[in-house]
Structure formats: structure tokens, C-alpha cells
Design goal:
Low-confidence stretches: 1-7
Order of helices and strands: HHEHEHEEHEHHEEEE
Structural class: alpha/beta
Distance between the termini: 30 Å
Number of helices: 7
Number of strands: 9
Radius of gyration: 17 Å
Shape: globular
Largest sheet: 9 strands, mixed
């Protein structure tokens, strides 16, 4: 554990508590986190495409992250950490919720995966630097977005890659991701505050302030024919690669 610099606090206790109550059901694909199970393959498709481009990899390589140190910030119960480990990465997952970390550790052990999990504030954990830093659907839940991004950037090794995803702040996301999704139970009530959503332009500006460059983001949308898929439509969710210039 490192310094307890209170200026680096980004965790909202109420957010950690909310997601901690869901820890035991996190891995149930039909439970309250069903939406994450459905979006995870789409995220992974983007991650695989970007890491192959970044490290000039072969798309047929089963272990494209072999030898790479990987950090997932706001890892929940490990839904992204486990496939990243199966891609060969030495994975560390950090989350605000102790309950989530307990569930993640137990699930990884049961799957025979060696993943390091830690609970707490990212800036206060002595965990080193990483070739790949991911943070999916997290920035909309933190108290200080710029500080959170700065803390993530501080964990990025030279030549490293960051991948972020988050809901966009649009009329469509307010209607569908907050209103309709919570009303029908697609996501647990109280999961989102639309006012905390961030647009791609705002995210790009914050990243620029800390010396990082966001590449053109991709949208994540749903259609009857394709289900959830990567698209140019960013009205609901988007995902982007971030690099140091």
C-alpha cells in the first residue's frame, strides 16, 4: 500500500456499496449483471482488434497478450479479467468493492486462472505499471473524472495502451440506458446517473489535458439483426483506444 493522499480519492462510497451488493450474482448470465455478460464479447472484439494493431500481432495468435502486464480498473467480479488472462496477459484487477474482489478471486481460482485482485483506490495501491490498462463502464461512476484518468495514465508503461468504454450522454441514453433499462430490470435500479455520463468530446478533452490522445471511438449499439455490435453509432455507448503521443 502506498501513500494516503486524499487528493487522489475518486471512489464514491455509495457506488462501491451499490455494486458490492451485486457481487454474489455477478457471474450469473441471467442475473442482475446480464447486460455486462451480453456486452462483454463486443468489448473483447474491440480489445483484440486494438491490441493486434498496437503490437503488430497476428489475429490468429491464441495468446496475443503473452508477456504483457494487464490492469483492469473497476474490474467488478472479473468479467473482463478472466478472458484477458486467457489471452495470455498477467492480469491485475482493481475494484472499489471488497465484496467484488472476493467474488472475483474465488471465481478465478475455480477456473484455474492466476489473477491478482486488489480492492481500494487505484492511486494508493503499489502495483507497478502495465502494458495494457482497461476500464469499462467505470468513469461514469467516479467522483473526479480527470483525477481518475490521471491515475490510470500513471499506471501506463511507456508504449502502453489504454482502452476505455462508457455510456454517452445523449437523449437516447437517458431514455434507454437509464429510464427503460432500469424500469424493465435490464440493469439494477440506481446503477446510472445520466448526469454523470460523459461525451466522447469531453473524454477526449480530459485525456488531452493529461497528455494522452484518444483515437476515434467506436459505438456499441443494439439492433434486431445484429444484437449488440460495434458501430459508428455512439448514441448509447462507445469504446476507445488511448495512447501516449
Amino acid at each position: 500500500m502506498a501513500n494516503a493522499n486524499v487528493s487522489n480519492v475518486t471512489i464514491r462510497p455509495e457506488e462501491a456499496a451499490h455494486f458490492g451488493t451485486l457481487a454474489r450474482e455477478w457471474w450469473d448470465p441471467k442475473g442482475p449483471m446480464a447486460s455486462l455478460h451480453q456486452i462483454n464479447p463486443v468489448r473483447l472484439r474491440f480489445v483484440r482488434e486494438i491490441i493486434d494493431m498496437h503490437w503488430s500481432g497476428n489475429s490468429r495468435d491464441a495468446l496475443p497478450l503473452k508477456g504483457k502486464q494487464v490492469l483492469d480498473v473497476g474490474c467488478g467480479a472479473g468479467l473482463l479479467c478472466e478472458p484477458l488472462a486467457r489471452l495470455g496477459g498477467q492480469v491485475t484487477g482493481v475494484d472499489a468493492s471488497v465484496e467484488n474482489i472476493g467474488t472475483a478471486s474465488a471465481h478465478a481460482a475455480g477456473a484455474g486462472l492466476d489473477i491478482r485482485y486488489m480492492a481500494g483506490e487505484l492511486a494508493q495501491l503499489d502495483i507497478g505499471t502495465f502494458d495494457l490498462v482497461t476500464s469499462m463502464e467505470v468513469i461514469e461512476h467516479v467522483a473526479d473524472k480527470r483525477q481518475f484518468l490521471q491515475d490510470c495514465a500513471a499506471r501506463l508503461a511507456p508504449g502502453g495502451l489504454m482502452i476505455l468504454s462508457t455510456p454517452n450522454r445523449t437523449a437516447a441514453s437517458r431514455l434507454l440506458l437509464v429510464g427503460a433499462a432500469e424500469a424493465v430490470g435490464y440493469v439494477p435500479k440506481g446503477t446510472h446517473d445520466w448526469n454523470d455520463f460523459i461525451t466522447p468530446e469531453e473524454l477526449g478533452e480530459l485525456l488531452g489535458q493529461i497528455g494522452l490522445t484518444m483515437e476515434a471511438p467506436r459505438g456499441i449499439a443494439w439492433s434486431l439483426g445484429k444484437g449488440l455490435h460495434l458501430t459508428e453509432d455512439m448514441s448509447l455507448n462507445y469504446i476507445a483506444a488511448v495512447r501516449k503521443p
